[in-house]
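Feature request, filed as a ticket because there's no other form

It would be nice if the structure record came with a short human-readable summary line next to the tokens. Right now we just get the raw output. Example of a typical job, pasted below so the devs can see what we mean:
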Amino acid sequence: MVQSLGSPSRINEYTAETPILVLGLPGVPGFNAFFNLRALYPGLTLGAGPPNAPELTAAGSPFGPGIVAADPENPRELAALFEAHDIKTVLDASGWCALKSCEFDPALARRLNVDIGRHAMEEARRRGARLIRLSTDLVFDGNPYVRDGRECAGGYREDSPVSPVTVYGKMMAEAESIIMEGYPEAAILRIALPMGPSLNGHAGAVDWIESRFRKGKPATLYYDEVRSNLYVQDLNRVLAHFCGNDARGIWHVGGPRPLSLYQVAQVINRLGNYPPELLMGCPRAAAGPMPPRAGDVGMNTDKLTAALPPGTLRPWPADETHVPTDREWHARREADFPSGAVARHLYGDGWPGAWDHPIALVPGAGD
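Raw output as currently delivered:
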């Protein structure tokens, strides 16, 4: 049974088998999930700090306890990590979502998007551990399709045929199949675009776009690439539920307000008080062939919504006045937003009262 969310001081409401291991800390989902789970299960949450992210485990690191140097690409090292800490629950947020880089280096894309997941699955299966694997909405192409005799866009369900257009999407879809076949007890969560802070300050959607604007550089986003964007705060809540339940199979995780990448950038441009002329837009067909771009990959989340407390997945952004109404919305301004509005309003909701807002959890998130 799915547990209701409380605060970090009410650990007894959670039923996760511990210790918990989080893989994929360099990415936005894994990075944020680690700090949330560490708050819920202090001393019982472990994060694997890979060699390509030495800042996670460096002496004097601001990221605190629970992160250990370990290379999840090395199956022996991963197995030793499981054994040494008697891991009972695994959150596998591994993956490399650099679309263009994956196109140019499919061998590396396979190691990061397929092989780590396979190794984690094999170790979880060997130990009978709970396994939650994060996948992506980009297992779909986002092009119009026919359902029940009607042409549709977005609204993909868990049983919709996958149709990835990128190497990244193809690898993630392959990993799904391998994990489901090898360990049917696992849960695979296809997540939309998570809005939250990143380790390096420019890996996430919000961070990358804002890093361009902050430097006075333009950012070009697409009018017709649509995602079911969600607060990373809400994704963390979903992951906390799945760590504590025995749900299996594929689940879609996304917010109820799909927006285009251009609209996402409009919100960031406006709340950050950045010059409107820095934001540029175009259709994805004008982006060139590399990497190929998906269209409307909005997801139907009815299955998940029915299993969670009402309001767990909120619209992003939550404030209706922060939602673009047209392509020039961001340029119409009456007054500036307070400093830090992007982090407060777009990483999560309920600041400063919410203990699980990323600013409260992630070192340096509000800087």
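Something like this underneath would help us a lot:
The radius of gyration is 20 Å.
The first strand starts at residue 20 and ends at 23.
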